[in-house]
Amino acid sequence: MKASFPLPRSSERVLSETVGIVREVCRDAGLRLDAGSHLDEIAPLDSLRLMETVAVLEDRFRVEVETNALGQLVRIEDIVALILRAQPAG
Predict the structure, then answer these.
(1) Number of C-alpha atoms within 13 angstroms, CB side, residue 71?
(2) Residue 57 and residue 65: Cα distance in Å, rounded?
(3) Neighbours of 25 (CB within 10 A)
(4) Backbone angles phi, psi at 38, to 5 degrees
(5) CA-CA distance, 87 to 39, in Å (whole number)?
(6) Distance CA 45, CA 13 (A)
(7) pLDDT for the residue 3
(8) Can you say whether the dihedral through the CA atoms of 38, 44, 47, 48 is positive or negative?
(9) 5-14, 16-25, 46-55 — which is least confidently predicted?
(10) C-alpha distances in angstroms, 89 versus 78, 80, 86?
């Protein structure tokens, strides 16, 4: 099982955006989410909504995520890491 670690400050914005977008896509502003939230425990978040979430994040952060990476996502923090890795360096 993967350990959950505090995200660096530079990741806080991506985390906040990710949590907000998951809530929006799931149409549930009351979802209690944090970096360690397991995606399979977020009841309204099915594979289609996960793809929609990532697409919105791609637009928001102007990045492109490879579709095959979606199968490796387990927690909210994995989505954040995926977006951060997709951002250009510098």
Answers:
(1) 2
(2) 9
(3) 19
(4) -75, 130
(5) 22
(6) 21
(7) 47
(8) negative
(9) 5-14
(10) 19, 16, 9
| List of residues 6+ apart from 27 with CB closer than 8 A | 44
Paired tokens of 24: 């929006």
Reported confidence tier of residue 10, pLDDT bands at 50, 70, 90: confident
Residue 55 has pLDDT above 90, yes or no: yes
Q: Which residue has the higher pLDDT, 4 or 60?
A: 60
The structure tokens 């994040």 sit at: 57
Q: Are 76 and 35 in contact (CB under 8 A)?
A: yes
Give the model's pLDDT for residue 90: 61
pTM across the whole model: 0.85
Helix/strand/coil percent split, the chain, to 5: 60, 0, 40
